[in-house]
Amino acid sequence: MPTKSRGALSNLARVRIMWGGGAAALTAVLILLWSNLSSPAPPVPPAIAHSYAAGDSQFIRVMSSLLGPPMVGGNRVRTLLNGDQSFPAMLAAIRSARRSVDFESYIYWSGQVGRDFADALSERARAGVATHVLIDWAGSWVKSDRTVLDQMRAAGVEVVMYRPLRWYDVDRINNRTHRKLLIVDGRIGFTGGLGIADQWLGHAQDKDHWRDTQFQVEGPVVAQLQAAFLDNWIETEGRVLEGESYFPPPVSAGSELAQAFRSSPGEGSASMRLMYLLAIASATRSIRIANAYFVPDSVAVAMLVAARRRNVEVEIIVPGPILDAQLVRRASRAMWGPLLEAGARIYEYQPTMFHVKVMVVDDTWVSVGSTNFDDRSFRLNDEANLNVVDPTFAREQVRVFDDDRGRSRQITFEAWRHRPLWERLRERWALAFRSQI
Fold first, then answer.
1. Pairing assessment for the beta strands 408-411 and 100-105 based on DSSP bridges
2. Are 378 and 272 in contact (CB under 8 A)?
3. Contacts for 291 with CB less than 8 Å, ≥ 6 apart
4. Euclidean distance between CA atoms 198 and 400, whole angstroms
5. CA distances from 181 to 214, 376, 387 (A)
6. Strands 313-319 and 286-291: what pairing?
7. Are residues 225 and 137 in contact, defined by beta-carbon separation less than 8 angstroms?
8. Which of 191, 113, 106 lies closest to 140, judged by CA?
């Protein structure tokens, strides 16, 4: 065979080998990502029958023992509406810190709010306060201000990104921390739905400023919020933060019974879903759900329908047309039929993006925090909720709920049933991605 022909064949062989190797590598990456994104869901808890009410001591024992940590008394929980009330309270708490500040957020974006928090955290770190910041990489990296992060690090703040993208860790990229926690001196805690971004400024006055609620906590339950933060800090840094700076002797601050409940992918991934199902099963009078991403599974739908059959009032507020993830809205609407037919009332908030995550049962039990009522929060994210058993606190949340309902449009069963065919098709398509939205 001529030399030129052999050379051409050799080059062709090399191209084929390179192409084959690249294709194999790409295939391996795609298989890895697919196995991550389509990982099988943990077993869904079966429907739970109604056995006792939310205010009964048995319900409290089950919540404490089956799910844990135990509910503790002596707490005071303050409701903070929107950025106007939330950001000043959080910044004031940071500025008051004398020993430690622990802060965790899914969202830390560039803007005025991010700069304000960076300034407050940096000042405390320079003053010698142990200051730790844990930010979710997927939720913040693209929109974060690197100069702000560098400013905090230069001041002595320990800033850590949770699960950044690395080739050897790509199989875990889909598991994020969605927790929103601030703990100061182990005595004052905050949790709720707020992210560190300018969208949360103001008082939900227009479409550019979101509606949300944050909660300030004092009392023994703050130690449980601290433990939720440390759950992710230890995983990321491999270092335990302990001692009186983080876990001071508990001091009673009020009369509310509370529990800081958390869940993570893996063994605890079904716990948050189970907590919601237990609460729905306990209802005797009313269930109020305000949630930014309400995509219930078939078990939750069946239990809400069963609650209606025992004459429990069911009301749900979800975002309206102003939403940062329209796929969620479509997947949510696909599940509304049985709920509306059973007499549940569903409302879409109209003025702006609705980012609240609150559930109230029988005007007695309240769950607030970072958890959305969807598969991602129940199965993939690290989440943290504060559960409170207190009629006075619950009635306050009902008043807020009623105010939000007044700014919402009710969706009737007739309107839902007669929606256009193209809407139904888009909703069914959106449901195929329900585990990721």
1. unpaired
2. yes
3. 316, 317, 318, 356, 357, 358, 359, 372, 373
4. 23
5. 10, 19, 15
6. parallel
7. no
8. 106
Site of tokens 């560039």? 110
Residue with tokens 């099963």: 281
Let me know: does 276 contact 418? Beta carbons within 8 Å. Answer: no
Alpha-carbon Rg for the chain, nearest whole angstrom, is 24
**Alpha carbon of 67 to those of 110, 341, 369, 401: distances in Å?**
37, 32, 16, 27
Give CA–CA dist 265/419, Å, rounded: 36
At 158, list the tokens: 């320990």
pLDDT band per the 50, 70, 90 thresholds, residue 162: very high
Phi, psi of 53 (to 5 degrees): -90, 160
For residue 68, name the pLDDT band (cuts at 50, 70, 90): confident
Asked if pLDDT for residue 268 goes beyond 60, the answer is no
Q: DSSP assignment, residue 248? A: P
CA nearest to 189, candidates 73, 263, 101: 101
Q: Tokens for 379?
A: 């199965």
Number of residues written out for the chain: 437
Mean pLDDT of the chain: 90
Q: Is 175 helix (H, G, I), strand (E, B) or coil?
A: coil
What lies within 8 Å, CB to CB, of 341 at 6+ separation is 413
Q: Are 358 and 211 in contact (CB under 8 A)?
A: no
Measured at the alpha carbon of residue 56, what is the angle toward residues 55 and 58, in degrees to the nearest 5? 135
Taking the C-alpha atoms of residue 20 and residue 246, their distance in angstroms, rounded to an integer, is 55
At the fourth CATH level, which superfamily is domain 57-431? Endonuclease Chain A (3.30.870.10)
Residue type, 88: P
Residue whose tokens read 């190797």: 21
